[in-house]
Write a structure and sequence with these properties.
Elements: H1 2-27, H2 32-44, H3 47-71, H4 74-94, H5 102-122, H6 128-151
């Protein structure tokens, strides 16, 4: 009799905890200076930490692009999408067996792909090709990170 009550409580608490974790990723509002500082930090980081820092950088760039599209500045948003593509390729090159926070990077990239999918549905027709290309690059980096996590 006690077992079903405990399992029901665990289920209820986990149902409330998952949205809180996902919402926490969107609470941080990136700006140009924080993105530049993170880019410098990622480029100078040791190889074990670069994958996660690049994933964090791509995430921040996409969040910044979403906000720029919402503000009506499509040119600036497109510039950040192109830079995000470059760093998604760097993630591909930085993934290795001894990455420090590879699972966290994979989760962050999955969330970034979700945000790009949202942007794809709300973007103008002329911007969709760039968003689709960026989404494909982020999905590829996320898949490679996930496969590397499962190899461990």
């Amino acid at each position: 009799m006690r077992f079903p009550i405990k399992s029901a409580l665990v289920l209820v608490f986990s149902a409330f905890a998952l949205p809180a974790c996902a919402a926490n990723l969107d609470n941080k509002i990136p700006d140009q200076q924080s993105i530049d500082a993170l880019e410098l930090r990622a480029n100078q980081a040791p190889p074990r930490e670069q994958c996660f820092l690049y994933a964090e950088l791509v995430h921040d760039m996409i969040e910044f692009s979403v906000r720029q599209y919402a503000a009506g500045d499509a040119d600036k948003a497109n510039g950040f999408l192109k830079k995000a593509q470059e760093f998604a390729h760097k993630i591909h090159l930085a993934i290795s067996d001894n990455d420090k926070r590879l699972k966290n990077a994979q989760i962050l990239l999955r969330h970034t792909a979700y945000r790009l999918t949202e942007l794809l549905h709300t973007s103008d027709f002329e911007d969709r090709l760039l968003v689709q290309q960026t989404l494909a690059d982020v999905n590829q980096a996320q898949t490679e990170a996930m496969l590397q996590v499962f190899r461990k």
